[in-house]
Write a structure and sequence with these properties.
The protein is an alpha/beta fold and 403 residues long. 41% of the residues lie in helices and 13% in strands. The radius of gyration is 22 Å and the shape is globular. It comes from bioreactor metagenome.
Length: 403
């Protein structure tokens, strides 16, 4: 039995939607992107949505819109994929890493300790699809104590009047906190539509806008769209219409737009996303039911009255285990044709960030999580028989390597 880690969900509806794009004579940014933006706006309850070609592009766009410059700081968790921090660097600022809590969400007390007059934004990460407590983070950045030391990065931030809150929701489409979507809780929610995500466009991302008054999110949508098209006032689809060739370049933008052929994949999946999410929940809950009897299995966050996850990852932690034993267990499973993963190597352990002065010793929970973590396969196509096979081999492998 061969079990991949996270294959995309491609059915006849996806193929039909992509084929429709191919046969339409238009495959870059156009009507499919517009339809996906509208669909995501409704699903996420966002004020507007801009589709782009990756999560990273979306983060860079919004941080550049904020007006970051050298010397500015953005707080991020140490336990995430490198794109969270690298988008800050690409926008010209410095990432300030803080540790996580045992539930894998960012430690809000550590955020408070890290805030200085240089802090312009905070990017918490919904790791595995578990939402952070954005209500408490908003309460913190709106407090008199924090506002008294706040210095805006630009006229846009002066208009906002506080630190910008961007959620790294690469994993959390469909998650809720106190019956609200993530896009309803933050200023900007950025989704990933990468190949292994719950909803995919092969490569892609989406910026969900929720800026408070006095911002006009319809106008901001237009501004962000222009920035994603090299600062051009018209996309290629609009320019291609008869007599509509004339355009202007009004800003120093970037080439971050999403093509229609990519949007078509996600558009077909979005129409049945509730079903796909339900199937991921089935897998997630079966793992938990089978593993809860083992004292060494630390289960990931389960749904509560307060929050629901998006079931993007099943980040199992094992205790007791050493890093070497964990790696042997991953290899044992690989020999049984079961693909697993580790989410993530903490950023302070990566060469780039070590060379910048970050030390893993400053992030003990991130490190402890890393050495114990194994992400099990989770996707709608996974059958109960396959789940049982994974768990049986995981249990057998654990006792083999821990003897």
């Amino acid at each position: 039995m061969k079990i991949p880690f996270s294959p995309p969900y491609i059915d006849d509806d996806v193929i039909k939607e992509v084929n429709d794009s191919l046969l339409s004579g238009w495959i870059t940014t156009g009507p499919k992107v517009a339809a996906l933006e509208k669909g995501l706006q409704e699903y996420c309850k966002a004020k507007r949505v801009n589709c782009v070609n990756s999560w990273t592009s979306g983060a860079i766009l919004m941080l550049r819109w904020l007006g970051l410059k050298e010397g500015d700081e953005v707080i991020v968790p140490s336990y995430t994929y490198c794109a969270t921090a690298m988008s800050v660097m690409d926008a010209g600022a410095k990432p300030i890493m803080v540790d996580i809590k045992h539930d894998l969400t960012i430690d809000i007390e550590k955020i408070k300790q890290a805030i200085t007059p240089k802090t312009k934004a905070i990017i918490p990460v919904d790791l595995g699809g578990v939402p952070c407590d954005y209500e408490k983070i908003i309460e913190l950045i709106c407090s008199k104590e924090i506002k008294d030391i706040f210095v805006p990065a630009s006229s846009n931030q002066e208009k906002l009047g506080r630190i910008l809150l961007i959620s790294d929701s690469a994993h959390s489409l469909g998650a809720t906190f106190n019956q609200k979507t993530i896009a309803e809780l933050v200023d900007v929610c950025i989704l990933s539509l990468h190949a292994v995500k719950n909803l995919t466009s092969a490569e892609g991302g989406a910026i969900c806008l929720n800026l408070p008054e006095p911002f006009d999110n319809d106008e901001l949508y237009k501004e962000v769209r222009i920035l994603s098209l090299n600062g051009q006032t018209k996309d290629a689809f609009t320019k291609s219409q008869a007599g509509a060739w004339r355009y202007d370049i009004v800003a120093h933008g970037m080439k971050f737009n999403m093509p229609d052929i990519n949007a078509a994949i996600a558009l077909a999946q979005l129409r049945k996303y509730d079903y796909l999410l339900g199937e991921r929940k089935r897998v997630y809950e079966r793992y938990s039911t089978l593993l809860k009897e083992y004292h060494w299995a630390i289960l990931p966050q389960q749904d509560t009255k307060e929050l629901t996850t998006s079931y993007h990852l099943y980040p199992l932690r094992i205790n007791p285990i050493t890093e070497e034993q964990r790696d042997k267990l991953i290899q044992y499973l690989a020999e049984k044709d079961i693909a697993t993963n580790v989410h993530y190597i903490p950023m302070p352990m990566l060469t780039l960030f070590k060379n910048m002065g970050y030390k893993i010793e400053d992030y003990p929970i991130a490190y402890d999580t890393y050495i114990r973590e194994i992400s099990l396969p989770i996707y709608p196509q996974l059958t109960n028989q396959q789940i049982d096979y994974i768990v049986n081999n995981l249990v057998e492998g654990y006792y083999n390597i821990s003897l």
